[in-house]
Amino acid sequence: MRIAFLGLGHMGLPMAKNLAAAGHEVVGFDVMPAAVEAAREAGLTGADSGTDAAAGASVVFTMFQTGQQVLDAYRGVDGAEGLLSVAASGTLFVDCSTIAVDDARAAHELAEAAGHRSLDAPVSGGVVGAENATLAFMVGGSDEDFEAARPLLETMGRRVVHCGGAGLGQAAKVCNNMILAVSQIAVAEAFVLGERLGLSHQALFDVASNASGQCWALTTNCPVPGPVPTSPANRDYQPGFAGALMSKDLGLAEHAVTSAGVDAKMGMLAREVYREFAEGPGAGQDFSGIINTIRTRSGEGSR
Ligand code: NAD
């Protein structure tokens, strides 16, 4: 099967490599020439343009930063042909970028109007998951299109969940990350409070990890060094999941919360907390580094 893979960045290149390793003919393209060169060096076929890659492919994957980039590539900009107009009728478009639910739905509509099939299939698992083919895919689109894409997604990931119709993969992603942001802040606040009250990190961990405070932000991404040796806190908060990416995803959550008219006070507070974190020192730090901001704001010297 010939597959076009567009967007060969941190996530896209290792994902494309895993498809090629499974025996598919993968034609890759990125607007950054160095990324196409890296793909060629990895043994993939590099195309001269996105439309060259998409013409003649049965499946077109996109892994870009933003919804605008996806919509522009689908439609074409400044009179140039877009991916949808060069692809053979009935081509399956699978967008793995993390973008707004509304943009994902717009992309589905464009693809459908052009006679194609389409899925939104954002991922979690980060670069390590992309390299090791252990990503989790959250997929929106029809049953038939999901089943057509499933073997390819399983080549790149460990968990593939069909969340419902158009845009619902992105919906699952923003909902999950909103939970994650709120819970990471809650865990960090609890550790700082415990410190002030004289409670050791290990004692709080031993209690909360076996009680109703248990959650991923505590038991995997523990924001203090020690209790979970593999958590980013043990390596000076190197990501992991960078504050900049959490802030981006919470921006998408804010968009969804506003357009759905939901009273999501905690989620929107977390959006503000991580926006500031990402604009400051947290952009390149793991998002569990928020604990240091909380300590600073709690006036460390006032103890
Ligand atoms: P990245 O910036 O490394 O890669 C995106 C690539 O898309 C870039 O190389 C860019 O040049 C290319 N691109 C943009 N427009 C293009 C076009 N029209 N044609 C061809 N190439 C184009 O970003 P990334 O870290 O790989 O993330 C990609 C997406 O995955 C984002 O939406 C991100 O939010 C999401 N995501 C990232 C991670 C992570 O840990 N990096 C984890 C989960 C989800």
Automatic annotation (TrEMBL):
Pathway listed: Amino-acid degradation; L-valine degradation
One Pfam family of this chain: NAD_binding_11
Gene3D superfamilies: N-(1-d-carboxylethyl)-l-norvaline Dehydrogenase, domain 2, NAD(P)-binding Rossmann-like Domain
EC number: 1.1.1.31
Domain 3-hydroxyisobutyrate dehydrogenase-like NAD-binding: 167-293
Catalytic reaction list: 3-hydroxy-2-methylpropanoate + NAD(+) = 2-methyl-3-oxopropanoate + NADH + H(+)
InterPro entries recorded: 3-OH-isobutyrate_DH-rel_CS (IPR002204), 6-PGluconate_DH-like_C_sf (IPR008927), 6PGD_dom2 (IPR013328), 6PGDH_NADP-bd (IPR006115), HIBADH (IPR011548), HIBADH-like_NADP-bd (IPR029154), HIBADH-related (IPR015815), NAD(P)-bd_dom_sf (IPR036291)
Keyword vocabulary terms for this entry: Branched-chain amino acid catabolism, NAD, Oxidoreductase
PROSITE patterns in the cross-refs: 3_HYDROXYISOBUT_DH
Residue intervals of the 6-phosphogluconate dehydrogenase NADP-binding domain: 2-164
UniProt-recorded Gene Ontology molecular function terms: 3-hydroxyisobutyrate dehydrogenase activity
Family: Belongs to the HIBADH-related family.
Protein name: 3-hydroxyisobutyrate dehydrogenase
Organism: Microbacterium salsuginis
Gene: mmsB
